[in-house]
Amino acid sequence: MEHEHIVKKFDKNLEKIKATIVEMGGLVGLQVNDATAVLSSYDKAEVDRITAYDRIINGLNKDIHDRAEILIVRRQPMALDLRQTLAPINISGELERIGDHAKSTAKRAHIIHNAPPEDATLDMIGQMSTKVQAMLADVIIAYANADIDLAAKIRAQDKDVDMLYKQVVKTVIETLTKTPDKAESLIHITLIARNFERIGDHVCNVARYVHQIVTGEDLKASADPSELRLDK
Amino acid sequence: MIDPIITARGVDIFYDTNQAIHNVDLDILPNKVTAFIGPSGCGKSTFLRAINRMNDLIPTCRVTGDMKIAGQDIYAPAVDVVALRAQVGMVFQKPNPFPKSIFENVAYGLKIHKITDSKTEMQDRVEWSLRSAGLWAEVADRLDQPGNSLSGGQQQRLCIARAIAVKPKVILMDEPCSALDPIATAVVEELIDNLRKDYTIVIVTHSMQQAARVSQRTAFFHLGTLVEFGDTKTIFTTPEDERTQNYITGRIG
Is the ipTM of this complex over 0.95? Predict the structure, then answer.
């Protein structure tokens, strides 16, 4: 259990950043959900509405950056506080990218609508979406509660999403040879599957930031940068 | 592995029957800046003053345990305290130039410790000290003016010049910037960073940002005990002890 700051406003500033991330996570989750729905029941107005989410999400992203910046200036955070201030900048970036993938998915809905591909591929897309939405909802809980065990479970689930993506690609390749006239929609199905696969990666990145906030350990840090120098 | 220049083992410090420092073990590495941080009354200044026996001046103060500098027990009966304080210089919270000229302030230690009788050598050493303290350009044309005619930041650098004139091994600094404005503080911090090439510096500071900026090693004291000691980066990013984290982040522990 974290202790409170002597300066109460410090706690309030950090809580506001956290609340904004939670709000952003909820909106992005909704956008992914709606983008998936519009694939099976196309509606242009709905696509426009999903696309318009973007501005709100970008606004929240900017709000988090501004709040973190002013907190650094005012409070000079250290240790846990510093990680609680810096990580949201990265987390909001990951969420914003998820929003972009949802938008990209929604924008392809009319092609899928005009030339529906195999049901099997749409089923797999549906499974991918269900999976990443659950992961996204959980990672926001893990962030809000500083729950590193939940964050670890979420990271472990990414392989399921990757497997589904490979299955979509395999099915598309098989179908292309049988029904080359559906090439365009099959390519878009692959790109949509790619969107969900990337969403899974971004959720995993958020889960890594949750781990880093709590422990200070950067799970993405691999090699010593000096080992990567090309002039060695 | 670098050998420490200062080693403390089982150091206890008492004021009468009150124990201010409890069983501190600490190794200070040469040519590094080591910061002591902790809340008021935690014992950090008391421990700092034990490193050059400034506590001897307080009749009720008693130091037990083992405190060595370069392998020498500084509390051994044969130790000449005046010579020790030349080896371990000190800069205080408030700049305290003597009521003498700028030149005499720096030359004082050279005379006390009879380091030189030669006038030329004395002049050379004063100039070298003032240059080392980053003050020469500002005072070269007014060396005969009183030390206290300088600004606060200049006076503090004059005190640093006075300490380094006798070429100490260690310089102790007890909140050296707490009476200075941010610009004068920056100048002193830059000086501290330059001085560590030649000296070992131990600094007590209430400014966590200053400790993070100037030091390579940080010790956190709390209620007279050394809670945590390590690389400054680790202390200010991922401290091990919850008490350290609560203190540096300003939380109620």
Answer: no
